[in-house]
Amino acid sequence: MSGVGADYENIMVPAVFGTWAPVMAAFVKVAAGERVLDVACGTGVVARELYRHAGANGTVVGCDSNAAMLETAREVSTEIEWRESNALDLSFESASFDVVTCQQGYQFFQNRLKAAQEAHRVLVNGGRIAVSVWCSLSENPGQAAVVAAVEEFVGSDAAKMVGSAFGLGAKSQLQEFISAAGFRELQLATETRPARFSSSEDLAIGLLRGGALARAGVELNDDTMAQITGRVSTSLAKYQTASELVFPMSANIILGQK
Q1: Cβ density class 5-21: b for 16+ within 10 Å, e for less
Q2: Rounded to an integer, what distance in angstroms lies between the CA atom of residue 225 and that of residue 228?
Q3: What is the model's pLDDT at position 214?
Q4: What pLDDT is recorded for position 211?
Q5: What is the model's pLDDT at position 39?
Q6: For the sheet containing 81-84, what is the strand order?
């Protein structure tokens, strides 16, 4: 594997997203035989976790608008159907799924209500949606340090792009568009889990070469990356152990029923 998808799968999944996939699975409680759609699936860590619960008699589909992410997803797992599809215009028939999930995608959607309405459309009556989004940067110190370093050494526009993953941090925002899309019996929770990186360099590479900047086609040279890594290392010194960098991450999760 190589490229954006590989950096994401090799660094960000074991350090961050692999820890959160079971949280999503436990929250939505996928049962054996259910039909599941994971929207904005990336390289497929949540879809792979949900497949373990849906079983051989179930169906799990992962969709994403980023072809590079899907290419890596297909290399990692052949048991799941991977589909290139935009969250605002899902390429699936109405009432096709029992469950729709989305881990860390809604903050990037240009029209969050439209995405939630599309999820509502493809669900059967009584179907469930589960969405998780990061809390604000103030509750995610590792990423906050990277954003601050990017602003210092690259500029505010790039920093805003990196920080966009944390732009939907209030529970009220999440509840508003899920409710407006027609979902009911909403359940909200805030969860905190540790992120574990081998070093500050891995954190910076994972966020900047496997995240929003890379997906937008922005490449930072080695000198700039070294400056960013140095500043991040200083900022996060209290989270550095003898063998790894460990810091808390917090996310809000919502469950709704059609």
Answers
A1: bbbbbbbbbbbbbbbbb
A2: 5
A3: 66
A4: 65
A5: 98
A6: 81-84, 59-64, 35-39, 97-103, 123-134, 245-257, 184-197
CA atoms of 25 and 51, how far apart (whole Å): 10
Closest CA to 211 of 140, 251, 168, 162: 162
Compute mean pLDDT per 10 residues along the chain, 258 residues long, and list them: 73 90 96 97 97 94 94 94 97 97 95 98 98 96 96 92 91 96 97 94 82 72 91 95 95 98
Map out the domains of the chain with their CATH numbers: 4-257 (3.40.50.150)
Contacts of 123 (CB under 8 A, 6+ apart): 95, 97, 98, 99, 100, 129, 258
Please, are residues 60 and 78 in contact by the beta-carbon 8 Å criterion?
A: no
- Give the pLDDT score at 22: 96
Residue 64 tokens read as 């994403």
* Count of residues in the chain: 258
SS3 of 43-94: the string is CCHHHHHHHHHHCCCCEEEEEECCHHHHHHHHHHCCCCEEEECECCECCCCC
Structure tokens at 13: 């999944």
CA dihedral angle for residue 172, residue 178, residue 14, residue 165, rounded to 10 degrees? -60
Structure tokens at 228: 């960013």
